UniProtKB/TrEMBL annotation, chain B:
It comes from the Eukaryota. It is found in: Membrane. Gene3D superfamilies: 6.10.140.1330, 6.10.250.1040. This is Sodium/hydrogen exchanger. The keyword Ion transport applies. The lineage of its organism: Eukaryota, Metazoa, Chordata, Craniata, Vertebrata. GO terms for biological process: regulation of intracellular pH; sodium ion import across plasma membrane.
Length: 176, 635
């Protein structure tokens, strides 16, 4: 694994990264080792092939890798937050925003019925018919949609998940 | 007296001898060793004769087993009964019936159970059956939690019940004064042997989710091991003149050593068995025999070395299972499974028959204080143990053990065959009959009362819970999405605490063990099948990308109640979820299609697909697509 300092010096802009995401040096080193082991071609980028998917063009470099994973740190809610600082990446709101993006594929800030259907389709097994899926999607939108625009905005999404313990569900404990 | 020692049945030969003498004394015998009701035709050849005593012992045993099996047949044909009554109830009732018959017919001492017979012949099949059907991967994923419940929970129960019972004995010192602390601890160690598996059969119809299943199953298995070790420890303490603090310390070390030693012995025999099975392709008929021989040998070897036989046989079964299943033909595998079920069934039946016989004997010692306090303490300590342990373990687990699960684990702690056998085998001392009576009462109570009421109580609990906080459809769907997401992210990150060692072991397994222990042809074929499956799966995923254009509906109509119900039912049944899959539970009395065969096998990356690390060994297509869509650079 190498010593912490030598690995840290290999990463550009590592202090800024640590400040932005809140990870400790030991975690950054671990994530770097993991990144390297996933990045078999040693290009410095992770391509979808490394994850096993096909037909996509996007790549991920180490900084983005760390930034994404920073969402999954357990939130620390005992320290009073300085309101002038930007929202920490692992707060409840940020985690919810992250989850919202999984649905909102065209990035228009709303989950349309079609997007919801697509996610539902990939989550259900084969036996569910199209009408059942549609009726479930209808129900979901109906429950959450308060301004009746037949789509779920981020606020509505957040409200519908009020009772769910997001921090518990979206945290990887060892990343604390 | 004809010698009957070659027969491996649970009577000690001397017992049978007394039996026979009893018969002779009661005048049914005759002057010759041939005995029987032969016709008194002197000096001619006997054409027809009945010689019952010649076959008596095995005949009666077979009759008992036949009776119990016929009763089981009737039980399963009787409509709704199997869903309400656990099968242990039935076995106990048959045992009581047989006991009554024997008591009525015979007036000499009925057959009894000897320590050797129990530990050497009756216990191994039960434990081997449970060990062989243990779902390996799931077990190791939840190993921490299972060990937590089994070891700590059992210790909590044993010490708690033992000390409190001693307190009760001190309080009631008039009648119970001569029961020492060690006796109480010995008693509590055997009464803490729970058999929650017995209750799972009642949940056949509806949700026994995977997590609960493996927790209950694993806990019952390891709990047996811990119980037997503690029991033997306390027994050896009882034989010492005086017990000092050093002895207690040594006892603790011995427990650890015994457990680990058993583990080692089991591992050794498991690997040897796997290696042997590699060469059985030309003699397939005897291949199952090796499985049984090696398992039994591991048990006997560790008993010889005074190590934990249960740990040995379970480890042996778990170790050799994956290699043996790969090496042997389909039919051999099936015959192994059937034989295991058969033997463990017979074993359990015989033990319960002894229970019945022993219940209907003359001599019972009864003490209201002891019996009632034992019952109460058993329930109390188990409940508090489960609640406390779960509170701690839920902080560390991602998939919490829900209240319903806790209730099932705690209330479903029925006592069974092992309790009874262990109490029967205690060295004789004045209050032994009291212990036996109490144990019988506890077993009968837990099996009949708890066994039959657990399902209605759980349903009541769910109804109440459901009324209070019905999760909305949105919440269910979004929660499930988050579960998938987290599983994918965990895989990406290579979750150190869990998957790191698992990945390392898998690598070691694939590279060395499988090559060494599995036959050549079997190896190649399985990887090609795997590659094919992977390619198929990729095609499926590519199809999923196409979005069918759906008309946006203008109006939303209110949903009827039945629709809501049907939606909920669809969701619970169909959402891909990792830890709430509905699978049929392990049952000692039936064989279901093994989950590994039907469900999703974890996909191992073939060498040609690239990557020496296999971060995606456990994921489904859903997780692929969801995780990928999340790993996109965003502004």
């Amino acid at each position: 694994m190498g010593s912490t300092n030598s690995t840290l010096s290999k990463i550009p802009n590592v202090e800024e990264l640590m400040r932005e995401t809140g990870f400790s040096p030991a975690h950054i080193v671990r994530l770097y080792d993991r990144f390297e082991s996933l990045d078999k071609e040693k290009t410095g980028h992770l391509r979808p092939e490394d994850f096993g998917a096909i037909n996509r063009q996007d790549t991920v470099d180490f900084h983005s890798f760390v930034r994404i994973l920073a969402h999954f740190r357990p939130a620390e809610n005992n320290r009073p937050r300085d309101p002038s600082l930007p929202e920490p990446v692992n707060s409840r709101i940020s985690k919810l925003k992250f989850a919202f993006q999984l649905y909102d594929l065209d990035k228009d800030g709303k989950i349309s019925r079609a997007e919801l259907l697509q996610v539902l389709r990939s989550m259900m097994e084969m036996q569910v018919t199209e009408e059942q899926l549609e009726s479930i999607a209808d129900r979901t939108i109906q429950e959450a949609d308060l301004d009746r625009d037949d789509a779920i905005s981020f606020e509505e999404f957040r409200k519908s998940l009020e009772k769910v313990n997001i921090d518990h569900k979206m945290s990887i404990r060892f990343l604390r | 007296v004809p010698s009957l020692s070659p027969f491996p049945f649970p009577f000690s030969p001397s017992m049978v001898a007394t039996w026979m003498d009893g018969e002779k004394a009661s005048g049914l015998g005759s002057n010759s060793s041939k005995g029987g009701l032969s016709l008194d035709v002197p000096m001619a050849l006997r054409v027809f004769s009945v010689d019952y005593y010649h076959v008596q012992a095995p005949f009666e045993i077979v009759l008992w087993i036949m009776l119990a099996s016929l009763a089981k047949l009737g039980f399963h044909w009787s409509g709704r009964l199997p869903a309400v009554v656990p099968e242990s109830c039935l076995l106990i009732m048959v045992g009581l019936l047989v006991g009554g018959v024997i008591y009525g017919v015979r007036h000499s001492a009925p057959p009894t159970l000897s320590a050797d017979a129990f530990f050497l012949f009756l216990l191994p099949p039960i434990v081997l059956d449970a060990g062989y059907f243990l779902p390996g991967k799931l077990f190791f994923e939840n190993l921490g939690t299972i060990l937590w419940y089994a070891v700590l929970g059992t210790l909590w129960n044993v010490l708690g019940i033992g000390v409190c019972l001693y307190g009760v004995c001190l309080l009631a010192s008039g009648s119970l004064g001569d029961v020492s602390l060690l006796h109480c601890l010995l008693f509590s160690s055997l009464i803490a042997a729970v058999d929650p598996v017995a209750v799972l059969s009642v949940f056949q119809e509806i949700h026994v989710n995977e997590q609960l299943h493996i927790l209950v199953f694993g806990e019952s298995l390891l709990n047996d091991a811990v119980t037997v070790v503690l029991y033997k420890l306390f027994e050896s303490f009882l034989r010492l003149p005086v017990v000092t603090g050093v002895d207690v310390l040594l006892g603790g070390c011995r427990v650890l050593g015994v457990g680990l030693g058993g583990l080692g012995v089991g591992l050794f025999f498991g690997l040897v068995a796997a290696l042997t099975s590699r060469f059985t392709s030309r003699a397939q008929v005897i291949a199952p025999l090796f499985v049984f021989l090696y398992s039994y040998l591991s048990y006997l070897t560790s008993e010889m070395l005074h190590l934990s036989g249960i740990m040995a046989i379970v480890t042996c079964a778990v170790t050799m299972k994956q290699y043996v299943e790969a090496n042997l033909s389909e039919r051999s595998n099936t015959s192994i499974q059937y034989f295991l079920k058969m033997w463990s069934s017979v074993s359990e039946t015989l033990i319960f028959i002894f229970l019945g016989v022993s219940t209907i004997q003359d001599v019972h010692m009864w003490s209201w204080a002891f019996v009632c306090s034992t019952l109460l303490l058993c329930l109390l300590w188990r409940a508090t143990g489960v609640i406390l342990l779960t509170a701690v373990v839920n902080k560390v687990r991602r998939n919490v053990v829900t209240f319903r699960d806790q209730f099932i684990i705690a209330y479903g702690g029925l006592r069974g065959a092992i309790c009874f056998s262990l109490v029967f085998l205690i060295d004789d001392f004045p209050k032994k009959r009291l212990f036996i009576t109490t144990t019988i009462v506890v077993i009968l109570f837990t099996v009949f009362v708890q066994g039959m009421t657990i399902k209605p109580l759980v349903e009541l609990l769910e109804v109440k819970r459901r009324k209070r906080n019905l999760p909305t459809v949105s919440e269910e769907i979004h929660s499930r999405l988050l579960d998938h997401l987290l599983a994918g992210i965990e895989d990406v990150v290579g979750y150190w605490g869990q998957h790191y060692w698992k990945d390392k072991f898998e690598q070691f397994n694939q590279r060395y063990l499988c090559r060494f222990l599995i036959r050549e042809e079997r190896q190649a074929r399985s990887s090609i099948v795997r590659v094919y499956q992977e390619l198929e799966r990729r095609d499926e995923r590519a199809d999923e990308e196409h979005i069918t254009h759906v008309d946006v509906r203008c109006q939303t109509r209110p949903h009827l109640l039945e629709e809501m119900d049907s939606i909920r039912r669809i969701l619970t049944r169909n959402l891909h979820s990792f830890n709430n899959k509905q699978i049929p539970a392990y049952s000692r009395h039936t064989l279901h299609g093994t989950p590994a065969a039907e469900g999703r096998k974890p996909l191992r990356r073939h060498q040609s697909l690239g990557g020496k690390h296999s971060p995606w060994s456990q994921v489904t297509p859903t997780v692929h697509s969801i995780t990928h869509s999340s790993i996109q650079p965003y502004s």
